Every structure is written in structure tokens, then in C-alpha cells.
Predict the structure.
Amino acid sequence: MKWNKMLHGGDYNPEQWLDRPDILAEDIALMKKAGINCMTLGVFSWSMLEPEEGVYRLQWLEDIIDRLYEAGISTILATPTGGLPHWLTKDFPEVMQVREDGGRNLPGKRHNFCYTSKKMRERTKEIDGKLAEMSLRHPGIILWHISNELGGNFADGACHCDECQRAFREWLKRKYGTLQELNKAWWTTFWSRRYTDWEQIHSPTPGGECLVHGLNLDWRRFVTCQMTDFLRWEKAALREYSSLPVTTNFMYFFKPLDYCEMQKEVDVISWDSYPFWHKEKDEVPMAVKAAAYHSMMRSMKKKPFLLMESTPSAVSWRNCNPLKRPGMHMLSSMQAVAYGSNTVQYFQWRKGRGAFEKFHGAVLDHKNGENTRTFREVAEVGLRLAKTQKQIVGSCNRAEIAMIFDWENWWALEDAAGPRLDINYKRVFLKHYRAFWEMGIDVDIVNMDGELKDYRMVIAPLNYLYKKGYADKVERYVESGGVYVTTCFSGIVDENDLCFIGEHPLGKVLGIRSEEIDAPGEEFRNLVDFHGKWYNTGELCEIVHNENGQTLAAYEKEYYAGSPAVIKNEFGRGNAYYLAAEFEQVFYNDFYGGLMEEMGIENPLSAKLPYGVTISERKGERDIIFLQNFRDENMEVETAGRYEETDTGMLWEGKITLGAFECKILQRMEGKVNE
Ligand code: GLA
Ligand code: ZN
């Protein structure tokens, strides 16, 4: 999809104000003042678009789309399936989800539909078709926004109704062919769990079967598959009339749905980002998390994505909802752009007067119109996007390093009942990622299916499950010169969650033989000496034998004192590193820092960054460097080059001074500043 501008806008709910034409007129006037060029309409409008089954009222929506268009504002049009109208749930309860306890949800809230239900699909097709047909008359519409945050009903995102159970069994039949194959893959002889009839198979539930890991894993795959099928269904309904691109708004690393699979159905990735800024004085952990999420959204298609929602001030759904401090709105908006977003969109344009989101941050509050700090800060973002869009819009980050984050691994790992029940994939993953954030080096985040040879280094923390063909791919990658880093509790099970027997599937490449894994309690924590510095190990310590490599660090304590904790193995033209333990953060910073030095990879300013400051770079005709300060105080960065601020034209040579929560957008200059 090609847009020649950065989009700035957000969720707009004029249907809540149809009896207030003065407000609707004010909306458009203020949108212009805020530098807004794109609004998302219709996200939860079903009951206003189809007040009774088969009775459609689209005119109000059409009028608003046209009025926005006349004001130079495009529309992202949502399909309304995120919120079910009462007539639908009353007449057809089967459209609502059944929870894992077997009870059907009652009407209400949102994101509460069964993605398999024939009735749900039938009504969806009708309303989506009507919208798509209407869209042909309105050039203001530029993109379809399918449903809303699919799976986001605050439970496990899955429906356990009879229709879904039947679909699950069909899915399993297609996958395994025979029950014999299924029993083998799920290891059902354990605890007498063998299935003798397909009808005996039921989705995992806490009150029933939930300890057969193969079943759990397949159920999660099925849920993604079925939700993706629903997405495809909506897309097909739109495609009957409209060829506009489609997206659906994702959420962070959302465990119930494998976004790497779902993204294949959309033309452009979009997501909703709500970092908990000002949770603590140190903003770095949150900045790291947000950067990782943005990076993953970009890496899925290796293209710019859309920040579909963010709050202009505070959210209203956490226990404590601090306002964004002055400067944070600009910084967090620019952070999204820095990692590849071509939009800054908000939830929400205007606070409603009632119900659950009446206090959720918005560009416009209940009072004060444009005369607020939030409005002014939003308008500043609009201005800045307009000033820099020519340089930014066609550019994208191009990382030389990839980290593997894979949903199937996530599901299996945290289900494993292994050395710890509380293994937290995301937490450990983010420690590795953070080392690069602190250095200001971009990283792509991809799953195991991705092409590895595009990268100089691939990092796979806690890579417990190996998908089919993965070990071979890694072997070829390292053999032909790649650098591969992996950790304890990797290469344990195959794609069916069955343990590998015999050797570690990458034993040769890693140069190790793994024997056992310890989960030491707090008082038994170990430490290692790595290049003359002491580092604490964390929750997992694997005891491995160095078969072929070089031991770079060994455990200091316990009966396994002296056994290797960090091993490097040269394999073919590449190198593999095995981190046998989990470590404290500073170890990762130093370990990857050393590797970057060896490999000659540095951040775009070739600068040593002070704590809290980071860089991300979008490559284009001219590279755009985003220098971000997440500290609430001025910071200095020593560089050796000359840079121009893209939006202000200000020149910097050598030392660059950043204000509190400032993001500078820089381009490299030739020649001397004062020439
Ligand atoms: C989600 C939803 C929005 C809104 C925001 C509030 O992202 O998609 O409709 O509820 O949360 O933060
Ligand atoms: Zn269902």
C-alpha cells in the first residue's frame, strides 16, 4: 500500500453525537487545527448501522465520511463486528462465545462473538457487504479496519461452543488423518488418555483435560486458524465490492493469537499501543517493551506499519492511570515512527459523556475545547509529522540482527511443566532485546519460519520448541557464516511438543551436550566470571558439556562449579553461542556489546549512549535517525559526525544535547557545519 503522507488522527465516534450537530461541526474545525488527516469510523457502530436485522441506516456515516473528505480528512472504515447489537444476541445467542467452563456469555461488553458461528458469519457478511457497497461512493475511504482487537475479550480469546468443538475435530482430522496418528502425536497413552472416537475430543478446559500438551498446543493453533478464517471471511465480504487494502488492529505480544499467522491475511499491519508511561521513575523498561512491540509489528512484513491507537493522555482501564507528562506524548508518538510506523492515531478523538470510556484520554475533553495541554501536544505532533513526512514516509528500518519470538514456542514453553512453572518467555526475551535497545541498534523480531540469511546475527532465547525444519535451517545458516545465539532450555521438543531423544538437535552446531537443568531458588543462585567480570545467573542453570567449543564462562558454585555457562562454537564459516544460564541484565549488555564490537555493528551515530537514550533508524533515500531520550532531564550524546534536524534545520556537530523526553529526528550531513 502506498500513501505519500504520514497519517494523524484516530477513532472517531460521531454516532454518539448525532443529536448535536454543533459538536460535529466543532469536531471538524478542531481536527484541522490539530493537524489531523485521517479518522477511523464505525468501530462499534453496528447497532446504529443496522438497528434491526436487515434494516440498514448508513446515511449518517456517509454524510460524515463526505464532510471529513471535504475537510481533507480521509477515513479508515471499520467493520462493526467488535460490538454485537442486542437484537443479534437476543435472537441468536449462538453468536456469543462459550467460555472454557462451558457457560455461554451473556449479551454485553464487546469482542464477544463466536468466530465459527454460522449465524455470526451470515450477519457479518450482510453488514460488511452493505458497507463495502457504500464505500464505492466515497473516495474519502482509504482502508478497511476489520473488526477490533480480535480475541481481546479479556479471557483466553477462544470460544468453546459446540460449533467450535466440531470445527476443532474437523481441523484435527485434516491434520492427522487417523486417531492413531493423533494419539501418537499427543502421547495419550499417558494417564490413559487415548482417544478411540473423534467425538471424545474436547477443547482444553481447567475443569476437564488440560494437561495433554499436544492437545493444548493444537487447540491454540486451531483458535488462531479459526480466528484467521473469520478475518478472511470478513475480507471476502468486503472484496465482493471493494478492493481497498485491509488491516485489523493487533495488540502487543498477545498470547492467544499467533499474529505471525494472522498477518498473512492483511495488507498492512496495524496495532494499538498503550505503554504504561510513568509507572516508575525509570521509563526504560517500558520504552524497551514498546520498542520491541513496534519492532515486531514492522518485522512481520518488513514494512512500515500503522500505529492505529494510542492515548493522547491517559488510559482509563488500569488501576492507576497517570497522565502523560509534558513531552511524553511527542516522544512516544515519535518512538512508534522511529521503529517503522507511518501513522500516529489515537483512541479517542472526543470523550463520550457516558459509559466505560468516558474518562479515557482523548484529544478533546468534556470541557475546554482546544484550550488544553493535551490538544496542544497533539497539534504539535500533527505539525511535526507534516514537516517530516516527505523524508520519513518511504523509509523503513533495516535491521542486521533478528531475534526469534515465536508463538508456538511461547505456548509450549509456558505449558511445559518443566524446571519452573513460572517460566516467562516475554520477560527473558526482553532482557536480550534490551541490550540492543540500550546500544541503539535496531533488531527485527521474527518467528521461526522467517528467512535467517537476511541477518548477520540471529538470537533465539528459550527456544524450547523447534518447528519442523528449523534445526536444519539454523545449521545451514551458521555453516554459511551466520552468528547464532541461543540459550538454556532450547531444542527440547519438536512441533508436536514431544521431547527429542538422543542428542540436542543442534548439538553439533552448538558444540554441546546438554545433561540436566537446574532451577535454583533465590538462595542457591550461581555466578560466572566472564572476561574478568562477575555476573549473577538467574532462574535457570543448565548443566552442559562442552564437546567441541570454547568455554567463555563457567559456573562458580554448586556441584556443577566449573561446568560451562557460556560456550562459543565455530561451525562452518559461522559461530554459535550457547548461554546455558539465564543472567542478570548487565551480562546481556556486556555479552552483546562485545559481539557487536567484534562484528563491527554499531548504532547510527557511532555513539556510546547514556542510560535512557536510544536510537532507531529508518533507511531511505537519506537515512533518518531518531535519537530518543526517555529520561526526564537533559542528556548529552557525543558523536563524531554532523547532523541536521529534519524538522527544524538545526545543525549539530559532535555533542548533541537532548531535552527531557525529547526525540530528535536527524539526518547525516556531509562537510563541516560552519562551512
Ligand atoms: C482498545 C480498543 C479501543 C479502546 C482502547 C482504550 O485498544 O480497541 O476501542 O477501548 O482500547 O484504551
Ligand atoms: Zn464458538
In short: Residues 401-599 form a domain with the Rossmann fold fold (CATH 3.40.50.880). The CA atoms of residues 33 and 402 lie 41 Å apart. The radius of gyration is 26 Å. The chain has a mean pLDDT of 97.
